[in-house]
Specification:
mainly alpha
Length: about 140
């Protein structure tokens, strides 16, 4: 059996203020491996910024800036997390959900066309309006 001792005892983590957590089951039961890089990045971000009920209300543009991803990458990741039953989203408010019993494996499907994304997603529509008025 391995005896574990902190490598830097003066730097042992403490819980100060708010606290985010991810169930160990997220890794052990295959949820991690079912997510793309952008899905994983967005999921971890939403866990970190959520309150104790899993709620947060960061705007898509702030999320894209902080995560250094495009609006299209954000939309694809967000929609995949919703489809995989990991988050809820009502257009403004996110909720990180309790983990389902097992990861949902979503078969690959064709990506949405740029036109379809622009017509249906409020984040993209808002971006188009901002760009139109900035000219």
């Amino acid at each position: 059996m391995i005896t574990k001792k902190p490598l830097y005892p003066q730097r042992v983590r403490k819980i100060n203020g708010s606290f985010a957590f991810i169930e160990h089951r997220f890794l052990r039961h295959g949820f991690w491996q079912e997510l793309s890089h952008h899905e994983l990045l967005l999921y971890i971000f939403l866990v970190l910024v959520a309150d104790r009920k899993g709620l947060s209300y960061y705007s898509y543009d702030k999320i894209c800036i902080l995560l250094r991803i495009s609006v299209d990458e954000y939309i694809l990741a967000r929609d995949a997390l919703i489809e995989k039953d990991l988050i809820g989203f009502d257009g403004y408010l996110f909720q990180v959900l309790s983990l389902p019993d097992k990861p949902l494996t979503i078969g690959s499907k064709p990506l949405r066309s740029q036109q379809e994304i622009q017509q249906k997603d409020p984040a993209t529509i808002s971006q188009i309006i901002k760009e139109a008025f900035s000219k």
